[in-house]
Write a structure and sequence with these properties.
With about 100 residues, the chain is an all-alpha fold. It contains 4 helices and no strands. It has helices at about 5-10, 15-30, 40-65, 70-95. Helix 3 crosses helix 4.
Length: about 100
């Protein structure tokens, strides 16, 4: 059975927008659903640090690796995971030292 027509419908821009809006409204309706989860920890503790340092990893990707086109396709994954790791390390170090800069 060929699933390509089904997959092509899933990537329609209007359907993506509808699903994004639906998930956003669902998250607003059930605020306590993800409390205590990994995503809650990432959002409350790590998101600010990720925001500060993801520009550094974008700069490294585009300037040093000379690959702006690859970044446009899948580079966000290569930027997210090092930023996430750096944010986690900074948070754990700050907790261990008892000093919170970020």
């Amino acid at each position: 059975m060929d699933y390509s027509p089904l997959l092509s419908v899933l990537f329609e821009p209007w359907l993506q927008l509808l699903m994004t809006f639906s998930i956003f409204l669902w998250a607003l309706s059930y605020k306590t659903f993800g409390r205590g989860s990994t995503l809650d920890y990432m959002g409350s503790k790590l998101s600010g640090i990720i925001y500060y340092f993801h520009g550094l990893f974008i700069f490294i990707w585009v300037q040093w690796l000379h690959s702006p086109y690859d970044y446009a396709d899948w580079g966000f994954l290569y930027v997210l995971f090092p930023s996430l790791l750096l944010a986690y390390l900074i948070t754990k170090t700050q907790d261990a030292l008892g000093v919170h800069i970020f």
